[in-house]
Design brief:
Distance between the termini: 24 Å
Structural class: mainly alpha
Number of domains: 2
Shape: globular
Radius of gyration: 21 Å
Mean pLDDT: 76
Low-confidence stretches: 124-134
Number of strands: 3
Length: 235
Amino acid sequence: MDIKLKDFEGPLDLLLHLVSKYEVDIYDVPIVEVIEQYLAYIATLQAMKLEVAGEYMVMASQLMLIKSRKLLPKVVEAEPMADDPELELLGQIEEYRKYKALSEELGHQHDERAKFFSKPKQELIFEEATLSHDTTLMDLFLSFSHVMSQRQKELRNNHTVIEGDDYRIEDMMEVLEERLGQQAQLSLDQVFKDCQSRSEMITLFLATLELIKLHRVLVEQEDNFGQIILRKEVA
């Protein structure tokens, strides 16, 4: 099955997406949480054997440095650093936000002006999966990244060893539909609660995307960073 995810325009675009969901001033966001979400996203792409551009990996290394400094105990009051990597990063995100907003406004003006001229028909391209309550496919993917990261930590702490690693998307689709037939709704956490390996989680996630694409499963998210809820599509 060919799964295509909407790419960000670069690492700053991904960071802006994560930061903007907190709906606070950019300098007030919990930067460690944002960094952990970014790193979980990159780790999930690698686990799914999807190509990760080099610029994302460079940013990941910078973020790990910032995170390590944030987590270090402050024994004494240090001298203010001339070059604070955290403030520099937030400044870059803020600058990118301004340029992106300007670009979108110019694009909007271009679209408005284009209405006054006759133009040939253009092909309209939509994402394969349409999610309700303003939830995007990337929101679902980022939520899955977080769930998989947490689940892998639990499996490592439990020293769980699972023999056999052969999972089929078609089988997982049947399992998920059967569960949704028994329960009115499932949170994303519940969906992956019993998974015992990374391979099983990835296959189940791909099965979820396929059911969404086929309009056999509905996805909802009431609030930013809220639970992702799966429901069975009513014919």
